[in-house]
Design brief:
Helix content: 10-25%
Number of helices: 14
Shape: flat
Oligomer: single chain
Radius of gyration: 41 Å
Number of strands: 38
CATH topology of the largest domain: Rossmann fold
CATH class of the largest domain: Alpha Beta
CATH superfamily of the largest domain: Class I glutamine amidotransferase (GATase) domain
């Protein structure tokens, strides 16, 4: 122990002098009497101590603590570990030896068990059913969880096969602890045909084709053949024979299938079995794709022919989500207007076409409008489409105006290259006059006349009273598209400008008062399926006063019913793990007429069975890098002795200084109390005041 003062030690003499001087002045007249001498001593001591404590003395005590070395046992709990002829050994004898390690090592070590699969977790049991392996995540977990602890050694029992995360060879244990690896599984190449992957788009549109991309391999099957089959509900959609021409065979195939019917297609891809094949589980994959008839129909109507019309149609059609119907205004059937998501009025109203009924029909159907004005436009009638499109004092005049991108535009994002291209494009022929909507329109680009950037919008947007409208005040878009290709060798810039404009107009605000949706539309089979529900009152405030129920229907038409849990002001529902397949769901809230329906997909995971050849080379690299040792899993009985013999695996003793302010110690308080109380008692006994 050590006593530390914040001031000079000479101040202690001052404290003693203060105590003695105060006591002397107080009791000098009665010094002849013993009891008064005793009270003087008690007063001198208590005052001196109080003065001493004002100096802030600190008592520093030294303490030592010994931390045992922690042995972290990491076990690969994935399916691939059992995909060999040693499966029974791993499930029985090996696990007994693994979990007996604390007894083998003794009380001088702390042992913790961790399971490694798709996720890392502490566990003292294993079932080898994990669908993924992320070896690198085990290193991250150890570094984060045991950052300031004495990690003596890490033991990792695995087959070295990983299918998630980064290459574990690049991972390290931060405190440089040795890593012992136990090799599980079989490194021998076995006769096997493997469908490594089968991928397709999440959605496809009706009457289009969609690709199915396949990667397959085969080992030790040279000279033999397998049949690739793609089927749906037992109906064969594609079949072909593949001849395997080498021992180590790999092939990528893309097959285009027709999206003939809307709905979710469940495709089964199978490679036929070869005689003597090691595993047939990895010969099959399930693929799900949603076929939808949901392309947005875009109306492009015009008063007369113009090269801009074809250029705009081309730019929109690049996006397969949009179907453009171009038709002259006087041929339009207004009864069909409701089927369109957006209407592009190219130079309408025009001088030759009365657009009043068309505009009234569009607005009554809440269809967003894109106004494009030019020489054929009846400028005086533009205000009938939108009050913000009104141009006064036009008098039939037009200007040549280039585009100048608005740096503060935020209705949507625009690529930097598109911004630069837009500023360099040739001028459009724009109406001259006073633009009524200058303050209301959010310009994407201003009119630049000569070298002057004006405040007049060239290309802009408004969203007033839930009516979305886009404006392009000028004709000559076809010239923009040509120069875009000349300068950039593509139409990227003009495609983006038109595509983002259509996207802005087609996006609709969700005003539903009852919403139910899965957190993800596509789950893997080892992921817990979760739903969220939201209920709004008339003021669009979240409430959860009503009970919400959900019905889930699988492909076999079996129905499962659930009730949502109330969570703050919304609802949540955890369904846990579901078998692979497509599921329909229907949700209903008590007292609400509205019903919500939807679909989700759970995909099968076979990643652990695609590659079952153990990688002991990886495990040796990990052990060599961390100054540990690799050994076969069958040598686990030797592990405890090897750890004990490693001098780097040792306990750590920490010496720590623990400072305590004397004034905060309890015994100091009671000492002062005793001194003052004793003096007070004697004074009272002697009759003094």
């Amino acid at each position: 122990m050590q006593l530390v003062l914040s001031s000079s030690w000479w101040f202690i003499l001052l404290c003693l002098g203060l105590g003695i001087g105060y006591s002397y002045l107080l009791y000098k007249p009665q010094f002849k009497d013993f009891s008064y001498k005793l009270m003087a001593v008690l007063r001198a001591i208590s005052v001196s101590l109080l003065a001493f404590f004002l100096l802030g003395p600190v008592l520093v005590r030294m303490s030592s603590e010994t931390e045992k070395p922690k042995i972290i046992m990491v076990l690969d709990n994935s399916e691939s570990v059992l995909s060999n002829n040693k499966a029974n050994y791993y499930k029985d004898a090996f696990l007994k030896s693994w979990y007996a390690m604390p007894a083998e090592l003794g009380d001088d070590y702390d042992v913790e068990f961790i399971n490694m699969g798709g996720e890392i977790k502490i566990s003292d049991s294993a079932d080898f059913k994990a669908k993924k392996t992320n070896i690198g995540a085990a290193f991250d977990y150890i570094n984060n969880t045991y950052a300031k602890q004495n990690i003596g050694a890490v033991v990792m029992a695995t087959d070295g096969i990983y299918n998630r995360g980064t290459n574990p060879s690049y991972k390290t244990i931060n405190n440089h602890s040795p890593v012992y690896t136990l090799g599980m599984g079989d490194t021998a190449l076995k006769k096997d045909v493997i469908l490594k992957s089968a991928n397709t788009n999440a959605i496809a549109y009706l009457n289009n084709s969609f690709p199915v991309e396949l990667n397959l391999s085969a080992y030790e099957c040279s000279g033999q053949s397998t049949t690739l089959t793609i089927s749906e509900n037992g109906k064969t959609l594609h079949s072909q024979v593949l001849t395997i021409d080498k021992k180590d065979y790999f092939k990528s195939i893309t097959i285009n299938l027709d999206a003939a019917q809307p709905g979710t297609k469940h495709l089964t891809v199978i490679l036929s079995t070869i005689k003597g094949e090691h595993s047939i589980i990895n010969n099959k994959k399930d693929v799900f794709i949603e076929i939808i008839d949901g392309r947005e129909k875009i109306l492009l109507t015009y008063g007369g022919p113009h090269p801009d019309i074809g250029a705009i149609k081309e730019a929109i059609s690049v996006n397969k989500n949009y179907e453009v119907i171009s038709i002259q205004a006087n041929e339009l059937n207004l009864s069909d207007i409701s089927k369109y998501s957006v209407a592009i009025l190219y130079q309408i109203p025009s001088r030759t076409y009365n657009s009043a009924n068309l505009i009234k029909t569009l607005r009554s159907n809440n269809i967003p409008i894109w106004i494009i004005a030019g020489n054929q436009t009846s400028i005086e009638q533009l205000s009938t489409v939108s009050a913000m499109a009104k141009i006064d004092k036009h008098q039939g005049r037009f200007n040549e105006a280039q585009a100048s991108f608005n740096a503060t535009f935020n209705a949507f994002t625009v690529d930097e290259n598109t911004r630069q291209t837009l500023n360099a494009l040739p001028p459009l022929n724009v109406p001259y006059g006073q633009y009524a909507g200058t303050e209301m329109i959010e310009p994407m680009a201003y009119q630049k006349i000569g070298s002057v950037v004006t405040s007049l919008p060239l290309w802009g947007f408004t969203n007033q009273n839930n009516e979305k409208t886009a404006y392009l005040f000028g004709e000559g878009f076809w010239k923009w598209r040509m120069l875009d290709f000349v300068e950039n060798e593509s139409h990227f810039a003009t495609n983006e400008l038109v595509g983002k404009t259509i996207q802005y107009l087609t996006v609709k605000e969700d005003k539903r008062k009852f919403r139910v949706y899965p957190v993800k539309n596509v789950y893997e089979e080892d992921e817990s399926v979760r739903f969220i529900a939201e209920l709004y009152n008339a003021s669009y405030e979240l409430i959860n006063t009503n009970e919400v129920k959900l019905s889930l229907i699988n492909e076999a038409k079996q129905v499962y019913n659930y009730t949502f849990s109330k969570n703050d002001r919304s609802y949540s529902l955890e369904l846990g793990l579901l078998p692979p397949g497509a599921y329909n769901f229907t949700a209903k809230a008590e007292g609400i007429n509205e019903t919500v329906s939807g679909r989700l997909i759970v995909t099968a995971l076979q990643t652990e069975l695609v590659n079952t050849r153990a990688d002991f080379g990886l495990l040796r690299d990990i052990s060599n890098k961390h100054k540990g040792e690799f050994m076969p899993a069958s040598d686990i009985a030797k592990l405890a002795n090897k750890i004990k013999a490693n001098t780097a695996v040792t306990a750590v003793t920490y010496n720590e200084k623990k400072p305590d302010e004397l004034i905060s110690l309890k015994w100091v308080f009671f000492l002062l109390l005793l001194l003052i109380s004793a003096e007070w008692f004697i004074r009272k006994y002697e009759g003094a005041y």
